[in-house]
Amino acid sequence: MPPSEPIVVASGLRKSYGTSRRPVTVLDGIDLILHRGEVLALLGPNGAGKTTTVRILSTLLRPDAGTATIAGHDVLTAPRRVREVISLTGQYAAVDEKLTGRENLALMARLAHLPRPAARARVDDLLEAFDLTDAADRRLTTYSGGMRRRLDLAAGLLRRPQVLFLDEPTTGLDPRSRQGMWEVINEVVAQGTSLFLTTQYLEEADQLAHRVAVIDDGRVVAEGTPTELKRRVGEAGVELTFGSAALAAAAAAALAENAAVQEDRLVRMPTDGSVAHVKSLLARIEAAGAEPEHWEVRAPSLDDVFLTLTGRVARAAEKEVAA
Amino acid sequence: MTTATANPTASTRAQRIQHAGSDVLAMTGRAVRLVIRDPDSMLISLVLPITIMVMFVYVLGGAIDVGMDYATYATPGVILLCAGYGASNTAIAVAEDMIGGAMDRFRSMPILGPAVLAGHVIASVAKNLVTTALVLVVATLLGFEPDASLLEWLGAIGVIALYILAITCIATYVGVIVRTPAAAGGFGFFMLFLPYISSAFAPPETMPAWLRGVAEHQPVTPIIETIRGLLVGLGSDAAPATDLGSTALLAIAWCAALMVVFLTAASRAFSRRRG
Ligand SMILES: Nc1ncnc2c1ncn2[C@@H]1O[C@H](COP(=O)(O)OP(=O)(O)O)[C@@H](O)[C@H]1O
Ligand SMILES: [Mg+2]
């Protein structure tokens, strides 16, 4: 990722709801930068303030304090300029159920003021690119969740935005549809669109983002590349599962150094992941007469990152709370 | 920087107006489809006029003496009742749209914000004009006997269209300001209730004095009297047929005032309302 000019700059964003006597702070001073061509993932559990941040950046909501510019235009003083360069695909589908896929895209094309022949061609291209050509003339009531999300994303792309905001693009999708979304999102990014993404899924940030900002309770608690964040948690480890706690203890003793019995039958030992190192470890265990039932080399996941940074598991990660 | 820099206003402004017009057209197309593809509400819009007309003529008509055939007397009122129902559906549709995901997308686009409201208004007026035609057909089958020239017909339709436009603007405002679609439903109750306290279904002279005061001064009465005066040539104590011109002016003034006030209010409230 070559360093380049910032295209989204947010500084000191604050937002509270509730009464002035009992304010509920939702954003507590958010600073963020997205560079041109880059993908930034705002990663956090439900209620962390992701949607609020996106709504402020996309001119839908005024912050109580702080500033934000998109491509040099201030979201507060030049919202129309901002709207000309961004596109938002929010957490809840922005496509009309009662219209067909093609009608939804055609509406966006008209609102983009594309001349008719160009509009028709663009709609056809997008339907094709998002694998919706066969379903184009069916109403959305017949679409699967994955098809709806793809159409929603396509609708946001009609105007070829410079900055794309995607608020939890795969929440609620099954693994296969999620994979499909990641593929189309990566294609959009490959064409040069800068992407500001929010997600509750650590794996998603790892898959899509160049940089991750971890947000918790309205504050950015960590920022860096997925690799950097993983490094903060530690190196990869080989995990060995034994038939009994006694065997696990024997193996740990044979490995000495920094091997640790994790759960009573599981031993974790740092490794660089090379075959030679793993072989030598296994040889030492066998010599001690402790044959493992199962082993795997595991890189630290962003789940581990979150646990380390916030001291707790990402709460309510699977629960959909209207917000 | 010098003053020689091209002044962008002229062409940009023309283009903006053109874009705004095309935004409204696009949103109208959307709203029309949303109306047509709501089979439940379409069905009710068709059944309701027939039911109400039949009820008034056969159930109530025998008991109410207005000095003329009751179908002929009540038809203008039924037209307004059905338009009121249509408007209440518009309030609900707008309220639903306000909390739907599409609104965030529209607001984040460089388009004329209230175009989406204009789309609802135009689609709703078109739908209610169709309903009006249906009421007239059913009324004629049940004994409605208008006595009007082509010019009078055009005038009556114009006043009806104005009324529909006015209450649609009110409905749109209601749809924008309520928090939930269910709350917008309350507007429907009000709109269905309003024509009863007017000269729509019974002459105000038969009402108690205080109610009569309300009936004679609310906008529905001059509108009803104008429509009835044009189509049937019948006046009342409050608005004698000989004085149709001033009644019509009053009706038009009411509609225009309501329209301007609520259209402005709706588009202000729309721009102010942010999640
Ligand atoms: N309009 C609102 N009024 C009151 N509280 C709100 C409003 N919008 C969001 N919140 C609260 O702000 C917090 C952050 O919300 P949100 O930005 O939607 O989080 P996320 O998108 O990360 O799940 C939540 O606790 C939510 O309940
Ligand atoms: Mg959210």
Report a brief summary of the structure.
The complex is a heterodimer of chains A (323) and B (275). Chain A is built from 11 helices and 14 strands.
Descriptive report:
The complex is a heterodimer of chains A (323) and B (275). Chain A has 323 residues and is an alpha/beta fold. Chain A has helices spanning 50-57, 79-85, 101-111, 116-129, 145-157, 175-190, 202-208, 226-233, 245-255, 275-287, 302-310; strands at 6-18, 23-35, 39-43, 65-70, 73-74, 86-89, 163-167, 194-199, 211-216, 219-224, 237-241, 260-261, 266-270, 294-298. Chain A folds into 2 domains: 6-232, 3-Layer(aba) Sandwich (Rossmann fold); 235-299, Alpha-Beta Plaits (2-Layer Sandwich), CATH 3.30.70. Chain A has 11 helices and 14 strands. In chain A, helix 5 (145-157) packs parallel to helix 6 and helix 8 (226-233) crosses helix 11. The longest helix of chain A has 16 residues, at 175-190. Chain A is globular. In chain B, helix 9 crosses helix 10. The A-B interface holds A 55, 58-62, 80, 83-84, 86-96, 98-99, 103, 107, 110-113, 139, 155-156, 159 and B 19, 22-23, 25-26, 29-30, 33-34, 37-38, 100-102, 104-111, 274-275. Bound molecules: adenosine-5'-diphosphate and magnesium ion. The site of magnesium ion has 6 residues of chain A, from helix 1.
Tags for this model:
heterodimer, A: 323 residues, alpha/beta, Rossmann fold, Alpha-Beta Plaits, 2 domains, four-stranded antiparallel beta sheet, 14 strands, 36% helix, B: 275 residues, mainly alpha, 10 helices, 75% helix, 0% strand, elongated, disordered N terminus, binds adenosine-5'-diphosphate, binds magnesium ion, membrane (chain B), transmembrane helix (chain B), ABC_2_transport (chain B), transmembrane (chain B)
